[in-house]
Amino acid sequence: MNAAVSAFSSQPTRSAALLRAAGAFRALHDPRKMYLGKAQRHALAGLQRLAADGCGGVGLLTGAPGLGKTLLRGALHQSASVERCAVVAVETALLGFDDLLLEILSQLRGERVLPAELPGRYERIAELKAALMSQVVASGRHLLVLCDDAEQLDPATLEAIGALGNLCSERQAFVVPVFIGQPSLRQKLARLPGLRQRIGGHFTLAALEPDETRHYLEHRLRGAELALPEVLEPALAGRIHVASGGVPRVIDTLCRHLLRHAGDQGQPRATVASLDACRLQLLEPGAGPVPGFPGH
């Protein structure tokens, strides 16, 4: 009887741990908490060098969805040397080139610049030159422009952004664009030889290797003050890697669901059965948004 009471009383604790573990795999927005695999470390280090140089040409970061491009952009933004460069980050998929100029100016000024203030492209470029000289170049710096979702831009806008690198003096470039996008961005650039020749550094993100997936799981659980063996049975890390293809976003989705499933089932840890049940649920037609599972 005492053993039964003990087992019953420990059930809420086990479930609470699994729910806390599931919360550790929420969508991540803070670059300081991201896990850097080998490809991510290489890309970040290379982009940091290009950002600090200022005369190394246009930067390019590509990778499939879910590999952490936007988080890496944030990490680059946060780590950029304020003595070497000023930084603006723009969601280019939402803007044409003329609106992009207003967004850059707004971030440089620290206040919104309205279209009526600078109605034409000529006025906006002239104002950008003036702002660069007074707020950036005067202190020996250059402007790093991080353009996310760049694969959605039309060729003319891509070339116009790249041409901002022509704003320079005999000693330094005033603007260093960095394009961030999915692999289709490389195909667009292949048809733009003038812009392609400006690329000074191209970095490609890759999925996590099996050992990196395990380290990723440990990293995310550490944020909830949990260890991997506390919430996942030993064989599960390898199965999660196969099911997710090593894509961090898919790993997060799987882990949130399988940990909640295990908690609902009253299990002490998530099991392979939890993973199989969640894969079927997530892939069931009509069940809502479906992440990709390369190993399924």
What does this molecule look like?
The longest helix is centred in the first third of the chain and has 22 residues, at 2-23. The radius of gyration is 23 Å and the shape is elongated. It has helices at residues 2-23, 38-53, 69-79, 97-109, 121-135, 155-163, 184-190, 193-196, 210-222, 228-231, 236-244, 248-264, 272-283; strands spanning 58-62, 85-91, 142-148, 175-181, 199-204. The chain has 296 residues and is of the alpha/beta class. Mean pLDDT is 88; it is low at 1-10 and 284-296. Helix content is 51%, strand content 11%. It has 2 domains: 12-26 and 208-283, no CATH class; 38-204, P-loop containing nucleotide triphosphate hydrolases (Rossmann fold). A 5-stranded parallel β-sheet has the order 2-3-4-1-5, sandwiched between helices. It starts with a helix and ends in a 13-residue tail after the last helix.
Task: Give a quick precis of the structure.
With 296 residues, the protein is of the alpha/beta class.
Q: Which CATH architecture of the largest domain is right? A: 3-Layer(aba) Sandwich
- Show unreliable segments: 1-10, 284-296
So how many helices? Answer: 13
Placed side by side, the strands forming the largest sheet appear as: 2-3-4-1-5
Looking at CATH, the homologous superfamily of the largest domain is: P-loop containing nucleotide triphosphate hydrolases
The N- to C-terminal Cα distance equals 44 Å
Indicate how many domains the architecture comprises: 2
